[in-house]
Amino acid sequence: MLKKKIAKLTGLKESEIPGSYQIIGDILLIKMKIKSPTKKKKIAEAVIKILPYVKTVCELKEIKGELREPFVNVLAGSSTITTHKENDILYKIDVNKVMFSKGNLLERKRLLSQIKEGETVIDMFVGIGYFSLPIAKLTKAKEVIAIEKNPTAYNLLTDNIHLNKINNIIAIQGDCRIAARTFGGKANRIIMGYFPGTEQFLPAAIWMAKPGCIIHYHNIYKEKELWDMPLQQIEEVCKAFNKKFEVIIKKKVKSYSPRTLHTVIDFKVI
Ligand SMILES: C[S@@+](CC[C@H](N)C(=O)[O-])C[C@H]1O[C@@H](n2cnc3c(N)ncnc32)[C@H](O)[C@@H]1O
């Protein structure tokens, strides 16, 4: 629909216009296949004319590195900072500095429905609070310990805690493997919302787990590695800590690249 309207307004071929995009607050993020800066600008200006609530259009170039930092190119408008509202929660975000995993909506709903009264939840890779803010505000969890390494994401997280008037999130800036030392045996639930290479953080997670703790372990695996490799990785770490584990659910969340999947395993540490 949007594609057709852009084509009409710009005179470009529909095949030159991207079919998918993401709206965060008043910013539209789009991946472009075409190379021409003039055509990209034309598309962005048309978007602003067609969708009056969009103030900025950014081309999403890549998301890179350990801190999953995005790189965007502003095509129309100016500010890359916006406030996104979802389920009554406000998320202040700078789309040029941190990623917002809006696509994981179902996964977040599934997680929220499981939180029990009085739980201490540890979010090892909190970002700007995509999981932690709704848990703190919308469930009966006692507290959320929210750890983030990237100072920019951490600052946005603390802004978001104030913006949403939340008082049961303990925000910590630093590497979760170091922060974990302070929280041995403290967690009823642990969220490991980061990949690839999440297996290297399993020892810190198991260290923080109370008996009966549920760990939500996200990672990337090749189809042919499922499910032996992740289960073996979990087993090895549990064994080293003299613990056992029980799988609650193992799920393919979405395709990541050809024959490679974003997966989540919920398991209980016993
Ligand atoms: C993919 S983002 C996801 C954030 C959030 N879980 C979500 O779903 O929106 C991963 C986050 O983990 C942070 N991170 C990476 N390595 C970390 C570490 N060792 N300790 C704490 N945070 C880390 C990154 O800076 C980034 O903000």
Descriptive overview:
The strands form 3 sheets. This protein has a 7-stranded mixed β-sheet. Strands 1-2-3-4 form a 4-stranded mixed β-sheet. The protein has a two-stranded antiparallel ribbon with strand order 5-6. Helix 1 (2-10) packs across helix 2. Helices cover 28% and strands 35% of the residues. It is globular. The model has no long low-confidence stretch (mean pLDDT 94). The protein contains 8 helices and 13 strands. With 270 residues, it is α/β, with parallel strands linked by helices. The protein binds S-adenosylmethionine. S-adenosylmethionine binds next to strand 8.
> Distance N terminus to C terminus?
51 Å
* Helicity range: 25-40%
- Lateral strand order in the biggest sheet: 9-8-7-10-11-13-12
- Integer tally of domains: 2
Spatial extent as radius of gyration: 20 Å
